[in-house]
Amino acid sequence: MDVNVRGCSSSSSEPQSDPEDNMDLRRGPWTVEEDLTLINYISNHGEGRWNSLARCAGLKRTGKSCRLRWLNYLRPDVRRGNITLEEQLLILELHSRWGNRWSKIAQHLPGRTDNEIKNYWRTRVQKHAKQLQCDVNSKQFKDTMRYLWMPRLVERIQAAAASSGTGSSTTDNLNNNYNNQEYTTINPVLPASRSAHINSSLITPENSSTAASSDVSDPKDYYTFQDNNNNNQNSHMNYPDFHTNQSGYFNQGSQGIEQQHEQNMWFGSEDTMENSWNVEDLWFLQQQFCNGI
DNA sequence: AATGTGGCCAACCGCATATTG
DNA sequence: CCAATATGCGGTTGGCCACAT
């Protein structure tokens, strides 16, 4: 919304310099009164033109500060609380695609802010990279996310849905998509060492090569979550970079780590990313290093 | 009980880009 | 077209809190 707030003050003669130079400006945590002032002002006049807004509302804050406070905290549709499994999965996938484009990623997580996603990434994901003593941007780490964490997340999502008995959840969409082959799935270009553990019948060189060059301009084409916590947005999900069997992203088969071990390591915890590194993670990384990937 | 440590997250900072006059 | 200003984005910081020692 484009609201003209310029007429509210003697703005034409105001100094145009950065208001942060103003010694009267407040910094630090916002008070309840400031929050209410900002909310009331925006509800009456709309958002935008933040510097003018800050002045006209009588807030001794920079426009930047007001904007940040509104977008990250006060905005009515901002979603608070833990990042869900579905959101974790989406963050991982979108980050693998776009890197640290937090605002772009946030656009695809309704109610989540770039700041929140950024914080999540730094505190949870980077922590594990640190534990592994590898760079978060390294191929090893990215592959670990892609071929271990994300499939596990899908399994956990499915397990959670199964246990809760919710029939129309994201996981049902996942299952349906996979089972019915509703969408065109594109296989990842897998590390050779890892490919052996994947049901080869689901991988073809044709679509594998397609994956690497898939021209995905808008992830909405691929992801839409049934967001149970946020207005029941109708959604589906389609992974361009994975091909799965019915139980998850790939078939671990007899060569994988035993299912029980897998469950112990991942399904016993509330937070998927909070577990310590397990044997398979280390094994996977080791294989990658050994194969020079 | 006191102190140290680490995680979390709101807020700030600096820069790049867009908009305006 | 250009300079000034506003806006948006990603990186970083600092304070609070919980937990460990």
UniProtKB/TrEMBL annotation:
<dbReference type="InterPro" id="IPR044676">
    <property type="entry name" value="EOBI/EOBII-like_plant"/>
</dbReference>
<feature type="domain" description="HTH myb-type">
    <location>
        <begin position="22"/>
        <end position="78"/>
    </location>
</feature>
<dbReference type="InterPro" id="IPR001005">
    <property type="entry name" value="SANT/Myb"/>
</dbReference>
<protein>
    <submittedName>
        <fullName>Uncharacterized protein</fullName>
    </submittedName>
</protein>
<keyword id="KW-0804">Transcription</keyword>
<keyword id="KW-0677">Repeat</keyword>
<dbReference type="InterPro" id="IPR009057">
    <property type="entry name" value="Homeodomain-like_sf"/>
</dbReference>
<feature type="domain" description="Myb-like">
    <location>
        <begin position="22"/>
        <end position="74"/>
    </location>
</feature>
<keyword id="KW-0539">Nucleus</keyword>
<dbReference type="Pfam" id="PF00249">
    <property type="entry name" value="Myb_DNA-binding"/>
</dbReference>
<feature type="domain" description="HTH myb-type">
    <location>
        <begin position="79"/>
        <end position="129"/>
    </location>
</feature>
<keyword id="KW-0238">DNA-binding</keyword>
<keyword id="KW-0805">Transcription regulation</keyword>
<dbReference type="InterPro" id="IPR017930">
    <property type="entry name" value="Myb_dom"/>
</dbReference>
<feature type="region of interest" description="Disordered">
    <location>
        <begin position="1"/>
        <end position="26"/>
    </location>
</feature>
<dbReference type="GO" id="GO:0043565">
    <property type="term" value="F:sequence-specific DNA binding"/>
</dbReference>
<feature type="domain" description="Myb-like">
    <location>
        <begin position="75"/>
        <end position="125"/>
    </location>
</feature>
<dbReference type="GO" id="GO:0003700">
    <property type="term" value="F:DNA-binding transcription factor activity"/>
</dbReference>
<dbReference type="GO" id="GO:0005634">
    <property type="term" value="C:nucleus"/>
</dbReference>
